[in-house]
Amino acid sequence: MQRKPGHVTLLDIARACGYSVSTVSIVLSEAPLSRNVAASTRDQIRSMARQLGYHPDAYARSLRSRRNQTIAVLAYDLSDPFCLPIVHGIQAGLQPQSYLPLLVDAQTQRKLFDSYLKMILERRAEGAIVIASWIFEETNLLEDIEKNQVPIVIVGRDLTEKRVSSLLVDNEAGGALAFRHLADLGHRRIAIIRGPEELFDTEPRWAGAQRAAAEAGIAIDSRLVFQLPNLTDPTSGFDGGLHFAREMLASGRSFTAVLAFDDLTALGVVRGLSEAGLRIPEDCSVVGFDDVLPAAVATPGITTIRQPLKEMGLLSAEWTLQALNSRDQQRDKSVHLYKAPPELVVRNSTAKPASRRKARREKSRLIVSS
Amino acid sequence: MQRKPGHVTLLDIARACGYSVSTVSIVLSEAPLSRNVAASTRDQIRSMARQLGYHPDAYARSLRSRRNQTIAVLAYDLSDPFCLPIVHGIQAGLQPQSYLPLLVDAQTQRKLFDSYLKMILERRAEGAIVIASWIFEETNLLEDIEKNQVPIVIVGRDLTEKRVSSLLVDNEAGGALAFRHLADLGHRRIAIIRGPEELFDTEPRWAGAQRAAAEAGIAIDSRLVFQLPNLTDPTSGFDGGLHFAREMLASGRSFTAVLAFDDLTALGVVRGLSEAGLRIPEDCSVVGFDDVLPAAVATPGITTIRQPLKEMGLLSAEWTLQALNSRDQQRDKSVHLYKAPPELVVRNSTAKPASRRKARREKSRLIVSS
DNA sequence: ATTCCATATTCAAACGTTTGAATCTCTTGA
DNA sequence: TCAAGAGATTCAAACGTTTGAATATGGAAT
Question: For residues A283 and A268, is the Cβ–Cβ distance under 8 A?
Answer without folding.
Answer: no
